Amino acid sequence: MALRIQFFLLVFSFKLLDIAATTNIQDYTILRILLSEWQMVPPNWAGTDPCGDNWDGIGCTNQRVTSISLSSMGLIGPLPSDIVSLTELQILDLSYNGGLKGNIPQEIGSLAKLSNFFSGQIPDSIGNLTRLRYLSLNSNGFSGSIPPSIGNLKNLYWLDLADNRLTGTIPVSNGTNPGLDLLINTKHFHFGENQLSGTIPPQLFSSSMQLVHVLFDSNKLTGAIPSTLGLVTTLEVVRVDRNSISGTVPSNLNNLTSVHELYLSNNQLTGPIPNLTGMIALYYLDISNNSFTASSVPQWASTLQSLTTLIMENTNLQGGVPSGLFLLPQLQTVDLSNNKLNGTLNLGSSPSSQLQLIDLHNNSINSFTLGVEYSMELVLVGNPVCTRPELSTYCTSAYSNANYSTPSNNCLAPICSLNQTSSPNCRCAYPYTGTLVFRAPSFSGLNSSSYYHQLEGSFMESFKSLPVDSVSLSDPTRDSSDYLELSLEIFPFGRDRFNHSEVSAIGFILSNQTFKPPKEFGPFYFIGSTYLHFADSPVASSKSSNTSVVIGAAVGGSILVLLVIIVGVYAHKQKRRAERVTEHSHPFASWDPTKGSGSVPELKGARWFSFEELKKCTNNFSEANEIGSGGYGKVYRGSLLTGQLLAIKRAQQGSMQGGIEFKNEIELLSRVHHKNLVSLVGFCFEQGEQMLVYEYVPNGTLKDSLSGKSGIRLDWMRRLKIALGSARGLAYLHELANPPIIHRDVKTTNILLDERLNAKVSDFGLSKPMGDTDKDHVTTQVKGTMGYMDPEYYMTQQLTEKSDVYSFGVVLLELLTARKPIERGKYIVRDVKAAMDKTKNLYNLYEILDPVIASGSSLGGLEKFVDLAMHCVEESRVDRPTMGEVVKEIENIMQLAGLNPNAESASTSASYEEANKGNNHPYSNASLFEYSGELAPSKLEPQ
């Protein structure tokens, strides 16, 4: 019997060696390291033969790993430097995995066969990847300068570094170092939404370049537009808007006869309006908000037969409006607002049937020839002609809302179970979702269903090799950079969910630009959501099953052979990483639901930090790094090796209140993402510690600035921007989060200001999600902060989104007065009501206005701002607006004040640039830690 067992073990020992040899042993070892470093890898990453067992996302050629495609898996962890040992790797796609953090390893340059890369930092060694075709690192948190070595990537087709925090100048070659001017074969320069400074170097452009897209929008670029730009006749999209570019527009710009979209807006351009005669391909033109020499509407505008959108807001136009302009056959939008146009407006008897909007608000038009009934939206508010009662329809600034959603295909949508959605073909499923962002669409109308139908067809064509049933588009919006955003849902065919390999394939098509939208949409990028409903992995192959049997049977001897081969060099490292992966996989193994904090938190991608990691980045939680304290615990400033600054909120051990808030913030903040909400970077639950790790917001709380504590003086314009930003954040929670979320503790200490004084709503410890059964309200214990409390919520214990609206109304009154909600027994709402007199200038509120704004030169829109605040604090919730309506009203107020609500944020506060911000931080003692637990009824009623 013993002999037979030994023979059995010997046979299986040889079998095991044969299996292990199928995949290159070095490649297998590296994949095991990735398995130990990353959470949420596909479930079939098991066994010893990744190539033979078809591990999801792993592609092989001749037993060598040549591709790793793991798009939208929800991966969490760093990118280990060991990955460079995959010497045959050609494709690395880790796109749409928000939990992947840290640096790109410096050694990445040794991956000479890498063809695509989508995540990580930007080391100078990236220039060694001479076969690289796509370098797409957009929408991350990269900082530092653009590596000049990218100029060595002569085969590069697509360069996308947009939407990061890159600084410094645009690198060009100097005889010693390379630069981007050497990329003559590259067709895409996407650098928008960064912090690049300096001039656009004239050397960057030449006639030998094949550029199609040049996107430099929303940076800090200065100087003039180089005339060499006019040499790149292949260009189709040019965006240099939202910078500080000055001087005159080069006269040779009209050489760019292939350009479809041209954005020069929101700069400091001077001289004459550029002559664009001959740019016959131009669809979209925006030159607004510049300081051009006063002139009439240029004649060439009426000759551009392809034009769909003309935006010349605030460009010093004067004289009459030429009626021929409205006859252009493709024209959809004309915005000539905030100019000095006068005389009679005559649209003619047959304006273009495509026209959707003519915006002429704030001009001097004194008469209007009313011919036929016009179907487009015409805005004349702020013109003398609005004194005529019959024109009241046209004397409003309200724009129509976009409400497009892919219609059903002649079927009746079924009632689907929780988290499922009905497809256009009326089948319930779990779709793969995300947001499409188009950087320069050629059309302006958001309700342009014909364009969206074309886009849906393009998607189905791109996905024809995959089990995709249908796609759905919805919620078209324009963001602050004038990008078009669309929600995308992709539904599986024949079943209700996708598997890992299918999601990865869809993500790859979208991330590496395999999908080509119709030309009307222009360049795009996609922000994929983590897919949470994977189908069960396929049954393991017989080889995999045999492997499991072998490993179990040969535990006495044959497994040692494999271990000797694998562990060799990596033994010590693997042991440590195996310990860490256990912690990563089960970070709440020690969570005790009996201690009053509820069930184990449900993670949606928040990063797990070890105690040692946070200890190191705070210098052992030193007093020097302490930036706040309160009943919950302390907050420390920390810095990762990447340079990212953190605010680390460390709970006092044993705090029940802290445990509840800890769980609440992880679950809510890990699944909501908006630029006006503070981001949760991660958490630590280890060694009895509860720590929340936030992005560091440098300019403190709104309360600190209003009280003078921060040293930042907020002028009226800045207060309007802060009100708009925080309102947008709350509107996102109420209307776009799924399920909707009620903040429940809106106040000025929970609104933080970033480096550009943009508002970010924070502290979600008391927040409450609205379930499917909570359509009208949530019945819950009364919690909140005195002075901000919704009286109806207090009386009925029925919490609604309108409770946040009431609190926000109090915040608006604080922005006006800089007073505390309750101070020396006086309640701000009652004080403002008592002082108001709408028959007098500024509603008779001059005495209680904050002196900082009362002494300012302009308070445009103040009366409407007061009206909005008082509307928000109506005692009955049905009389209050929604946060979405609040956002629109603040946008209207800003337009009345001569401000662009979507313009790039920049402070005009006199003291902002010179304020000593060395001691500013967002978590002062009165900030996140002001007690806001259950309130006794006797303490809630203002005196």
TrEMBL record:
Region (Disordered): 904-924
Sequence intervals crossing the membrane: 549-571
InterPro entries: Kinase-like_dom_sf, Leu-rich_rpt, LRR_dom_sf, Prot_kinase_dom, Protein_kinase_ATP_BS, Ser-Thr/Tyr_kinase_cat_dom, Ser/Thr_kinase_AS
Main location: membrane
Residues engaged in binding ATP: 649
Protein kinase domain ranges (all copies): 621-894
Signal sequence region: 1-21
Keyword terms, alphabetized: ATP-binding, Glycoprotein, Kinase, Leucine-rich repeat, Membrane, Nucleotide-binding, Receptor, Repeat, Serine/threonine-protein kinase, Signal, Transferase, Transmembrane, Transmembrane helix
Membrane topology per record: Single-pass type I membrane protein
Biased composition (Low complexity): 904-913
GO cellular component, one term: membrane
GO MF annotation list: ATP binding; protein serine/threonine kinase activity
Subcellular location: Membrane
Listed EC numbers: 2.7.11.1
UniProt keyword Transmembrane, yes or no: yes
Protein's name according to its UniProt entry: non-specific serine/threonine protein kinase
Protein's organism: Dillenia turbinata
